[in-house]
Amino acid sequence: MRRAVARDARRLTRIVRGSRAYEGKYAAMVADHRVRPGYIEAHRVFVAVDRADGRVLGFYALLVDAAELDLMFVADDAQGLGIGRLLVRHLCGEARAAGLDRVRVVSHPPAEGFYRSTGARRTGTAPANPPAVPWERPELEFAVPSDA
Fold first, then answer.
1. Is the pLDDT confidence value at 148 over 70?
2. Which residues pair with 141 in a beta bridge?
3. Which of 6, 8, 63, 101 sits 20 to 30 Å CA-CA off 38?
4. Residues whose CB falls within 8 Å of the CB of residue 24, separated by 6 or more in sequence, listed in order
5. Angle at 46 between CA 28 and CA 29, to 5 degrees
6. C-alpha to C-alpha distance for 91 and 120, rounded to whole angstroms
7. Is beta strand 2-3 parallel, antiparallel or unpaired with respect to 44-49?
């Protein structure tokens, strides 16, 4: 794991736009999405990289002021390798270091099971936000245990 840097922006954008989880009716949500260098510099964005070749396998963005997970993606060819769980563990450590006791997640509907399997609990439903997001989304929360 390492902190993302501005030059990662294109790679992260490719991971978002190429995600199979956003095919079909979900495609419009990420079709024009760009992870910009300024976004990376303004937020806690971390990447999981392959030790052998330095390839970015996944990433997340924590918005500390909002205590919210904004983005989390694992490259399609890296799914099933535990990268998502690694990202969640790291996210919780970063949240703890920032003094947060919980992190809100507004989930892509098909990802709810993953978040629940990593310890998030369902807290409600976020309403649709047309035109980009014409469906309701699960709202979840990670409790962040203190160091004590």
1. no
2. 104, 121
3. 101
4. none
5. 5
6. 12
7. antiparallel
Beta-carbon count within 10 A of 147 CB: 6
Q: Omega into 131 within 30° of 0, i.e. cis?
A: yes
Query: What integer pLDDT is reported at residue 29 of this predicted model?
Result: 85
What pTM did the predictor assign?
0.94
Calculate the alpha carbon distances from 25 to 15, 33, 96, 99, 101 in Å.
18, 16, 36, 37, 34
73 within 8 A of 89, measured Cβ to Cβ: no
- What does the pLDDT look like over 39-85, one tens digit per residue? 999 999 999 999 999 999 999 999 999 999 999 999 999 999 999 99
Residue 16 in contact with residue 31, Cβ under 8 Å? no
Nearest to 40 by CA among 3, 86, 94: 3
Please give the angle made by the CA atoms of 106, 25 and 66, to the nearest 5 degrees. Answer: 15
> What are the tens digits of pLDDT across the range 80-139?
999 999 999 999 999 999 999 999 999 999 999 999 999 999 999 999 888 778 889 999
Tokens at residue 79, please?
């799914």
